[in-house]
Amino acid sequence: MSDVVTITGIAAGGEGVGRLADGRAVFVPRTAPGDRVRLKDGSLKLHRNFGRAAIGAVEGPGPARVTAPCPHYTQDECGGCQLQHLGYDAQLTAKRAIVGDALRRIAKLDVPDPEIVEAVEEWRYRAKIAMEVKGKAAGFHPHDRPNFVFPLADCHIADFRLMALWRELRTRLDLLPPGLTRLTLRLDREGWRHVIAESTGEPWLDAARLREALPEGHEVVCWWQPPEGAARVVAGPASGFPATAFEQVNPEMGMLARRWAVDQLGEVRGRTVWDLYGGIGDTAALLAERGATVVSVDADEKAIDWARQRGVEGTARFIAGRAEDVLPSLPPPHAVVVNPPRAGLHWDVTLRLTAEPVARVVYVSCDPATLARDLHRLDVNYEVTAVRAFDLFPQTAHVETVVVLEAA
């Protein structure tokens, strides 16, 4: 069996895909379409219908291959990005194909690869990074060694303001809580920078000292999260944006996707619209601006509290609870927007939408596979009328997709 493989495409997780001599697909990380690669000796792991291997050498680079600019990507095999070795046009092509393949293969839809909206910024777009901590090392995992952590110097897809904060924190790790296991840095829409420390040791007693020691520390809020407990502010203002609530890590592109999603609902003035998994109320605000009567539901109480206080103009009601639990109490909708986590729609939500179809459903998804699964379940009485992908996560294999469904 030859150990030289030609890569023909990119799989959902960002790995290159080729064929072994016996016809089985083989998945090889950090390869590009058109590459001829020699597999690393001893790395090939065979399964019944496919194999996995590591790259040994690039015998002939494909036209899409570029030199990754981030030293962590090449020297530390950082697993945070999967596609830095692809030119940006090739990344967009790969993501269109990932979404299209999921819709055809899992959802059984006869659709082409969707149009994709390219990112406003290819680098420095992330408003949040989460680092693992092992011993004295705080950073990320190599893509092939999940139990190892390399020290982070600079993340090239993270906002400069977060990396400036990290440069200062790196020299003051002794002021972080004992037993630190995870450190999250987040930039919110109001300009605050948040440090969220998760630890198994004693409470974070030096948070105020750390905040005072940081340049521009008056703009930093420190949070401490104990094991199996809720995060709380331990230094800085306790009111304001809830740093533990979900928000897109690429806020600008997230807003573009939401606006397109809302546009697909058409005229909503005076009509009831459900906003399920609504988070901090961004979609609800857009709908209320258009005159809809919005019912926004999310399980995160802090996100709902902030949404209630943000001063949404128009008629919007915010409910803290799991979507599947509160549906029976909601007024009948004219349209529904759903933006679930990667796990997709809860089965009870799918049952409600199929048992009592609404005129239009817009599904915003961060995972093509669970999106396709849910679309297949909804196919009983909905028709897909539009699909558009949005590149919220350049340099990674992740992609946001918005699908419009109309009652059949």
Tell me the fraction of residues in β-strands, as a range.
25-35%
Terminal Cα separation, in Å? 51 Å
**Contiguous helical run count:** 10
- Count every beta strand, where a strand is a DSSP E run of 2 or more residues: 22
What does the overall shape look like? flat
Kindly state the percentage of residues in helix: 10-25%
Q: What are the low-pLDDT stretches, counting only 5+ consecutive residues below 50?
A: none
Structural classification:
alpha/beta
The radius of gyration is: 23 Å
Overall mean pLDDT stands at 96
Largest sheet: 8 strands, mixed
Give the spatial strand order of the biggest sheet.
Answer: 8-21-22-20-19-16-17-18
Describe this structure in words.
The chain is of the alpha/beta class and 408 residues long. It has helices at residues 71-75, 88-105, 160-170, 207-213, 251-263, 282-289, 301-309, 323-326, 347-355, 368-378, and strands at 4-10, 16-19, 25-28, 36-39, 45-46, 50-52, 55-60, 115-117, 128-134, 137-140, 150-151, 180-187, 193-199, 220-225, 232-235, 272-276, 293-298, 315-320, 335-338, 360-365, 382-390, 400-407. The strands form 3 sheets. It has an 8-stranded mixed β-sheet with strand order 8-21-22-20-19-16-17-18, sandwiched between helices. The longest helix has 18 residues, at 88-105.
